[in-house]
Amino acid sequence: MSTPRTSATATILAVARKELLDLFRDRRTVLLGLLMGPILLPALILGMGGLMEQRMRTQLESTLELPVVGAEHAPNLMNHLRSRNIEILPAPEDPEAVVLEQEHDVVLVVDAGYPDDWRASRSARVELVHDSSRRDSDIPMSRIGTAIQEYASTVGALRTVSRGVSPVAIVSVQAAPRDVATPESKRGMLLVFLPYLLILSAFLGGAYLVIDVTAGERERQSLEPLLATPASRGAIMSGKIVAACAFGMLSLLLILVAFKVSFMFAPGPLAQVDVSGPVMAQLLLVLLVMVLIGTALLTLISASVKSVKEAQSYMSVLMLLPIIPTIILMINPVKDEPWQFAVPFLAQNQMIMALVRSDPISAQQWLIYLGAGLGLALLLWLAAARLYHREKLAISA
Amino acid sequence: MIEVHDLHKTFKARTGPVHAVRGVGFRARDGEITGLLGPNGAGKTTTLRMLYTLMSPDRGSVKVDGLDFREQAAEVRARLGVLPDARGVYKRLTARENIAYFGRLHGLGERTIAERIETLATALQMHDFLDRRTEGFSQGQRTKTAIARALVHDPRNVILDEPTNGLDVMTTRGLREFLQRLRGEGRCVIFSSHIMQEVAALCDRIVIIANGEVRAEGSPDELRARAGEQNLEDAFVRLIGSEEGLHA
């Protein structure tokens, strides 16, 4: 339905301009919508990252308190442990109870037969009592385990030397781990939540605006005069989608800038996260696809429901959608394969992770990503446009 | 000129189909004010909605300046100025911005829009509140804004659904003068009302609608003669066959 007087582009621009003007007149809504994300999201990610790192550092560097049962049986081992910044505490009455009640993370029990075994050059037994279901005990356990291992191999080496055997002979195979994680990808581990937060902001960031310009306008009964103008319904709807996308992109840009700034001031490895201009531009391009899909989907929903309330009740379900691939990847990690870049949400997740980890993205991956994403947005747009032509749309009951 | 021929419209409702409009037909000429008079729920709004192509009828046709409302829907809407039942003025925009927005949707240039706003604001006496946001406007100010918005593109044909609804006496008088001015400019004006005096004071032709059907059509004098009543109100009651909704 084109008219000789109004071009579709002019209509789209006029509608988008009006919707943005209308929205920005509503100062409080705009401030909340634009500033909450940029303030809260970096705080969330940096706070979590910082907390995690701080805990690790204190556990690794501070003096570790270790209650020992039967310390008198192994005075040399105790001296070795002390040299590794481990303080030996007197024995508790019930080692297991102390661990279960979380008074101490680990308790060392030296077997009563230790001195005899030691003198006979047999393997002497010590026990480490800990609760593996408490993540807190991971670092103390590995510190104590490593210290005992060191002591054991030193003494073992001395014993073989004293018997005229090379200590190397008893190590028949040695596994040397070689970590291929780049510094960039290690940082990526700290940022597991970043993709979800960004995808969610892109997907639903402009939700209230989208719902308001279709379902809200219908409820306020201002859609009827609007549709009585010669402007085509498809163009009017597109103008509303353009306005919502512009707002969504502005809010994402602010979020990314907030991340860039906060990463610069962040302690530890986050400080080196690469949020350079080109990376930001690529992130925005990746998220633009999500914004388009989200806006078109919400327009479709808003045009099909009877009221704003009904449209809003879809939100709780929609909020869960972006987290599904994250959960699936957590449970069942899959290799990067081309099809992943065609699945909504999963594709965004992979692309953002790749950008944050500074992994290369091939032209083919970009092509699949953009093709599939924009194709889906176009389908949703066409479906929404069909609904916009329904007679019921203009008339609120 | 608007020609309406045999319009039918049925709605689906929970209790079964509702035949809201059954065979409405009339002709509204240029330079005349045509009044659709009928009680509440007679099918006036539905009929008007079909005229401005918001709804499509199950049967029948509408021609605006000779253009078919199905094949040339956008062109038909471009020739109509429409004040719907729901005014739908945007409350965060000023009156001027509301009018300008619709001007752009009609494809007018910014200069034309400014000139039209000036003309309409003078004619409707809107200068006091033209640059205020419409939130908090009185009913009269809102209606004036909506009317100016409907007429921004200088349409030949004007359709007004219950324009005087909720207005005080002074505003109603001003609006009446404005409608007479539109007629004087040779436009085709259709307006609907359930208020007898309103229609009697203003209309060259009256179409009486009740229960989705046209009960009578003609000038006020013709209607009086046909009903054999001296008083138009009595004629009206006779013609629709009951007093229902007359004083709503």
How does this model look, in words?
The complex is a heterodimer of chains A (397) and B (248). By secondary structure, chain A is mostly helical. Chain A has helices at 8-25, 27-61, 75-83, 95-100, 114-119, 138-162, 183-190, 193-204, 207-219, 223-227, 233-265, 277-304, 308-312, 315-320, 323-331, 346-356, 363-388, 391-394; strands spanning 64-69, 86-89, 106-110, 126-130. In chain A, strand 1 (64-69), helix 3 and strand 2 form a beta-alpha-beta unit. The mean pLDDT of chain A is 84. Chain A has a four-stranded mixed sheet. Chain A starts with 7 loop residues before the first helix and ends with a helix. Chain B has 248 residues and is α/β, with parallel strands linked by helices. Chain B has a single domain (2-240), classed as P-loop containing nucleotide triphosphate hydrolases (Rossmann fold, 3-Layer(aba) Sandwich). Chain B has helices at residues 44-51, 73-78, 95-105, 110-123, 139-150, 169-184, 196-202, 220-227, 232-240; strands at 2-11, 18-28, 32-37, 59-64, 67-68, 80-83, 157-161, 188-193, 205-210, 213-218. Classes of the chains: A mainly alpha (397), B alpha/beta (248). Chain A binds chain B through residues 1-7, 10-11, 14-15, 18, 21-22, 25-26, 217, 220-232, 236, 391, 394-396, and chain B through 49, 52-56, 73-75, 77-78, 80, 82-90, 92-93, 97, 101-102, 104-107, 133, 146, 149-150.
